[in-house]
Amino acid sequence: MGGHGAIAVIGVICLLLGSLMLFSPLEPFWHVSRVVVFTMTGLTAAFFALLIGLGLGAQRRAPATGSSAIIGARGAARTALDPEGIVNINGEEWTAVSAGGRIRKGDRVQVTAAYGIKLEVRRLA
Question: How large is the C-alpha radius of gyration of the chain?
Fold first, then answer.
């Protein structure tokens, strides 16, 4: 529970304590129901727990963009690669270099590395 989680916990505690001290118990007609206080504190805590969980899940996900997202992707050779040619990866055409040997047109390939706008691919069995 990093910095934001600690701040959320402290915020929920302050909400609870502030709500309980909101009105004086000596005046019976001016008070907030404890049921409302505990319900709102619980809902606030659940909201922050959901947000923190979603944030942690987003940090654990694999990259969706950039060169690290395309490594490991599979596609097909649009032209023969001997050693350079065109491949189709995720619906996009890329210039590619064969990582080992000749790749025929139509062969299935997998990306092993990315160098700027040029990919290194290997033929799949």
Answer: 29
Per-residue burial over 36-51, b if 16 or more Cβ lie within 10 Å, else e, is ebeeebeeebeebeee
Domain boundaries of the chain, sorted by first residue: 3-60, 67-123
Residues in the chain: 125
Residue position matching structure tokens 């700027």: 116
Measured between alpha carbons, how far apart are the two ends of the chain, in Å? 45
Q: Which fold has domain 67-123?
A: OB fold (Dihydrolipoamide Acetyltransferase, E2P) (2.40.50)
**82 vs 40, residue with greater confidence:** 40
**In the predicted structure, residue 118 carries a pLDDT above the cut 60:** yes
Q: How much is the pTM?
A: 0.57
